[in-house]
Fold each of these.
Amino acid sequence: MNDSEDILSIALDWHKAGEQVAIATVTSTWGSSPRRPGSRMAITASGRMAGSVSGGCIEGAVAEAAGRSIATGLPQLLDFGVTDERAWEVGLACGGKISVFVEKLVADAPA
Amino acid sequence: MRLDHLTALHAAAAARRPVAYATRLTDGAAYILPDLAAPNSPPDSPPDSPLGLLATEAAAMLAAGRTGVVTIADEPWFIESRTPSPRAFIIGAVHIAQTLAPLAVSMGFDVVVIDPRRTFAAPDRFPGIALRTDWPDEALDALNPDRATAIITLTHDPKLDDPGLIRALASDAFYIGALGSRKTHAARLERLTASGISTAAQARICAPVGLDIGAVTAPEIALSIIGQIVAARRGKLAKS
């Protein structure tokens, strides 16, 4: 089982346990980003987290965004990079750029 | 992400079926490709329609094992190639295997330890690891190693190692390693030659097994082996 598969299993387990779950997926990276496209992180409304989308520098911001996607049901595409002030704020000073797609785990097809 | 997609992806992974998972980054609409019989795949679309183009692009990316963002009909899609997890089949439930098996699990491998000697292949020696107690050749026939598979023989017993190696060499396994000194390996190669295995096939065997890190203890040898397997998987294996 590869790690992104493992994270999806954890997300499924959390959902079955009645948690509200969001899934974050690395879609693109440039430069020295440590996690490859397809790397995943699962986050619950109650604050549980599994997996990672960076070396640990943007997980906090991604978890915050996950909370918003859980609340609104809307997906978000987040960009972090050295040219982005937000990235410095969250500590992505390693010189990389990274895009992360955040979406809520939903029972039905979106309308 | 939809729950039914998540379960379908899980089922594909369990069946070792490669699939592409395509997500439209504007709104999260997603498809599992290719599987036109599955309810969540796009309907039969003309090849030049957006979904037809998506299916073609997804098939090409899956064939190349690539994951990334592509633009289709002016919209960004994230296409993830989901290929089967790598597997590691360890022949010989010996001391080295007790460290190697959990190390391989932590590297993302599905691990099976094979040893017909039940005192060795005992669950309490390998907590959480899949064990088989049939003969190595029969076990490999049943497990059907593919090009995402590493096979390691550790028993030091030709009765167990040789049939396993012969089956391993008949497969597309990306890594085949055999424990034993240069002298042991030379004797092994003579036996394999007598069994009709070509020199070219024999050259696929990494032996003495593992990276040269001066390993002495069983856990150190396990570390050198997993290092060599990772190098082989990432295309960085320099064979001695």
Amino acid sequence: MSSVSAPSSSSAPTSLRNAVIRFAGNSQDGIQSIGGFLARLAGRTAQEVMTYMTIPSTISGGPSIFQVHLGSGEVLHEGDEADVLVAFYKHSYQNHIGSLRKGGICFYDTADMTAEDLNHDRGIIHIGVPFTSATVEAVGGSTRDRGKNMFVLGMVCAVFNLDKEKLVGIVSRQFGRKDESVLRNALLAFDAGFAYQVGDVEKFSFVPGEAPGSHRISADGNQMMTLGLIAAGVRYGSAYPITPWSSIMETLRVELPKYGGIYVQAEDELAAVAMTIGAAFAGHLAITGSAGPGLSLKMEALGYASMAEIPLIVVNVQRGGPSTGLPTSVEQSDLMQAIYGSHGDSPRIVLAPKDVEDCFYIALEAGKLAKKYSCPVIILSDQALSSRIEAFEEPDLDKHWVEPELDLATRPADFKPYPLDAITRHAPPGAKMAGGKYPIATGLEHDEMGHPSGSPKMHTLMTAKRRNKLVQLSKELPLPEIHGDTTGDALVVGWGSTFGPIKESVTRMRSEGHKVGAIHLRHLHPMPAGLGDLFKQYKHVVCVEMNDSGLYGYGQLATLLRASLADPRIQSVCKTDGLAFRIREIVTGVEKIMTQA
Amino acid sequence: MSTAIDTPAAPATEKLTKKALTADHPTWCPGCGDFAVLNIFYRVLEKLQYPHENIVCVAGIGCSSRFPYFMNTHGIHFIHGRALPLATGISLSRPDVHVFVFGGDGDGFSIGGNHLNHAARKNIKLTYVIMDNFVYGLTKKQTSPTSPIGFKSKTDPTGSIDRPINPMRQLLASGATFIARTHAAQVKHMEAMFERAILHDGFSVVECLSECVMFYSGAFDDSTPRKGGTYELIDETQHDVTDETAAFKMAENLAPGKFGVYYQVNRPTKNALEQKWIDETQSKLGGVSQKEILKKRFEAMR
């Protein structure tokens, strides 16, 4: 909302391209709901949107925020600073007034604050509104604390001149499933907020969005991952509840029966991965998932899947670690665990989606790669991606749908479960063996027929067989697309949910005269061949990651790149505050490295 | 995911013989009780005549868990303690196959102890044979969860001090729907127990005392008549196999205790309950294609 900040008495709304609105309250105030409504509205009005929320890791109560970044152009990040802050309580005001930009607008509830509580330092415009009493007045009865979120939504709708009819439609569909009085009260509160005279404050209106509006949907990352898995042909699997993974298993549990499948809640993470390997051994594309602590527990079985060459998908929604760490914060510190976290040499494929939409496509790719290379594929999502809402074009299912298949064809007489000159293709139970010899999948080192073998030569050959699959894949992978300059001062390298902030940062640095480019690694293990030559086009290579810079000063991706390319120009910008990168953090970090010799 | 398993076997194209079922020569020590278990299992399968390709043998880690290598059937040799959840994944996703799990007391009652509880309470359709030798044999004589107090091992050189697990009571508490106890030296009885277990529609477990001649010789002399012990069978005209309390009582002392079926009830399997949910869910969808179901889901997100 860069255009105007001072109050204007003009009645014509100021047009703007984007705005960041932060709602701050407690977790039971329903601010997630209204944030979600705004995000869905954006999806339907060709606006771009990205949301950001914090939830306390306690069971109920506690401060919580929902931030919505709405824009008529590309929205790549959740917003460094808010243009508007809606504070439900005094503590919300005190904790979040610092996130409001200079000259921004703050709406606060007069029930919990007086003029003496306000901080006028940075030219912030304060508007006191009786959220609580006005809601009680509108809805009637003793509904204190209930419905004030809807009052606020109505008020925001009026201030930003949003499409009221569409917004009410979204609200009605949401509440329509519940008791009639719930919807009636919600709409009463909404109308009261919409009609409330906020006084001498500017009104805004978004310029029309550029994105085509016909088939746009809004969803969070876990939803898109789940639907991507279904489209990829997944029908079976098992998991154990853990934040922020659980919503994927909850949805699979309810959705898969529609497709004839079963999702099992296991007794623990070890059982979950074992059941999933069982379904995969039985011939299905199967999926387990977890967050960091659960991935640690699955590691022995994942090593088995590498050894026995069982294809399966493992989703890891990363959160702050180690140990229980920060269960509701974002971090990218499971990269090394995903790649190397089993004993022995146990190669597997590791992928990471770049945004919410990509969660769908990465699930499809994971399914294809697991089947093609007959090995585990780990998808590294993260807490930020899991819960934030974005709007994008609906996937074309006619193009992407994968029909699940169970191949029970009779296997020829010369069938070998572990051929040295080809990728393993298991014969699942139910498949007849023309030669009369039935196969066994095993975690012991084995010969081509699956017989246990302690032969030094066989272990060397089989280790190479399992590794060479990934070497082959690395040669097939395309080099990542470069955003910005294809040669110059610095190449910014990222992976996972930092895609948007890195792209925006590079755009900003270029507008300030720097010659910089960015690439995003979707394939983290193996990485595409040829990255080294690409890096040579820049003076500096900067890996931006949400993990610790470690003992030697390099984050996890930077460490991997330095080890594989032996390129001393590779540097790191890391952080571990449990929050997504802000644009200025990346710009400052990269500029600092560029000023080095 | 029907419960087709307890219906009579489909006619096999070729008769399933011991010869067809035999794979590698077992690597067990001469005199090991597990040889008898293997031979009786061949015999029961010959009798049941399931289609060869629909038999799956699953195991974790241990001497007895080498079992799948000696069976010429589809097989999977998994990691220590996790054979049951793996077999659960096969059973739930493949109603057309017969799932058999083999393992020892360490796999079943120690490292995999919790999985036994959950596979049992979920009543997963499979048959689990626990070859109990009261000792860790593959790792050369450490105390096992069923070693009796006083048993001298490399980890308890002055004699085991921890109360052993009572397998029958453990299984009863877990919710298993078929629980039997047999002895590798009593082949006729073992055969009867295996057959009844396999034909049970639900989670069926047979604990089979199987002597480790290398590290716990004489462990089962008290239940071996030719060594002066007694092999007392459960009289099912006196013991109601559906009476859980009576089964608990009967399991009070297993040294040597009784042999036979302690408990058997019919409770819906998870396999059947999941299938029921699938059928009910799908019947509401009116036969639209799977792709259409997902398309509609996306439409609702617009």
